[in-house]
Every structure is written in structure tokens, then in C-alpha cells.
Amino acid sequence: MFGRLFGRREEPEDAAPPAAHAWDLRPGSFLRLGFVAPEGLARAELEVRGVHALDLSGSVRRVLTVEALALGRLLMWHGERGAVAMGRPVDRPDVERLFDLGEFARLFDLDGAGNLVLNRIAEPADFAGWTAPVYRQEAAHEAFRREADPLSGESGAGAGQAFDFYRLVDDRRRHALEAYVHDGGRTDVVVAALLDESVVEEIWSG
What we know:
By secondary structure, this protein is mainly beta. Helices cover 6% and strands 42% of the residues. The chain has an eight-stranded antiparallel β-barrel.
């Protein structure tokens, strides 16, 4: 298991009308955030680079891939109760800085009860505001990734790419931790800060 872990723009006169909501944005659009706690996000300007969908046991999540100058690639989706979820992919060295790797690997123990409590061991300065001291597992099931944008009305090719989906949240539901285990054992890990919807201050349609 350890081996497999790891200024405002001027728009042209013929530009499309501004999106009414951040969740209407398409690739090539931009948004700017307000002052928020997670390191690197305060007043950040993000460009939407791509859109895909996750079919999570009956519910569909529209995921924006956004690019931030200070942080690089991030994932953004509509969280529960109107929250804006900003997901930051982390690699194995970062997982080791944040959590005990042995405890983290218990998340994938098929013989476990599925109620893992995971404690953070440190909060590095470059991850300030991105993680919580304690997470509790709330989901473990098969999911599917589809490359089609749900707003397009297209279902995408076939049934989508299957993977095993794991999700943990903190008691205040302000932070989440997700892991996606793909065929062949590749595991993607994302730490997410769940922010108030008002954090999005400006949007520009692409």
C-alpha cells in the first residue's frame, strides 16, 4: 500500500455575457476570491482550465480544474449547504508531512469497519488553513469519472472511468480529505477547504 500512495480584465465587445454564477463557468473563464484563510488563496485569481464530472453513488459532482498562480492546479466543486470546496492535490511527501502514513493507509483496509478517525500530525506553514486536526470517514464506495461537462447535457463516453472513492470530513464540516484509487493502484489524494459561497468576489466568462 505504501508504494502506491504517493487587475480586472477588459473583455472584447463580442464576449459572451458574464456567467451568473461561478458554477456556470467554462474553460477559459476566470474568477477572483476574497480574503480567505487557506494559504495561497487570499485574493487569488483562478483560471478555469477544464471540467469533468464525478458520479458518486447516485449524485453527480461537476468539478472545475482551476489554475492558481501561487498553488498551481486546484479542483473546485459545489459543496454541501452552498459551500465552495477548493481541493488541493497532495503527493506522498505531503501526505507524510500531514499524517502518520500507517494510520492513513488504514483508510484502504478492506477488512476495516469504514469508520476511520484520522488525526493530523502537523500543519506545515504552506498548508495553513487547508486541513483539520481530526477527520472522520463518511464514504467509501465505487465512483466514476466522466470527461463530459454535466452542463453540456452529454453523458460522456461509456460508463466513465471507475475508481474507489474515499472521503473524510472534520466535525465542523469545514475541511474534507478525499482519496481516489484507480485501477493499477495509482492513488490521488486531495485536501479540501470548504468555504462560504461569498468567497467568490468576481467572475469573468471565457
